[in-house]
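Quick start: what a row looks like.
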Amino acid sequence: MTAKTNWTIDPQHSVINFKVKHLAIANVSGIFKVCKGSLLSENEDFDNAEIHFEMDAGSIDTSNPERDTHLKSDLFLDAVKFPEIIFNGILRKTGDDYKLDGELTILDTTKKIQMDAEHTGIGKGRFNDVRAGFEVSGKINRKDFGLNFHLLNDAGDLVVGNDIKLHCDIELIKQMS
């Protein structure tokens, strides 16, 4: 049996971005400021690597404190009752690119999702640690996860769109055994 290599997410050099349509005309963007996770890989190319990832729901930040309070409330993420958004999955190599298949849990709902991933490189860190980068993108429908806030404007458009676009820049640190 091949030994697995453990990589942990460097939260100081990783960013979880999202954007969603507001009034069907413009995007509202934000980030989750607190995340943690790990990747277990048997191969240097990360094919079939196992991923576990968590975001702190209460760390959502859209640069608007009033909106952030609303998003943390029980009308959206209910961050007090459900403090973590969790993803577990497998990274699969598909030619030069990767697909990230797994299960995402928001509130108390778990759904299968697939996202695109690009391996952006491996290099040495400042303290001679080994680091790897990935850029991950995809989208989810918020209603699939019980995020059912529904308000229409005068034109009949949703105030908050259903599709949430995700873009993550992830830096991993190889753990030495």
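That is the whole record. The longest strand covers residues 109-124. DSSP finds one helix and eleven strands in the chain.
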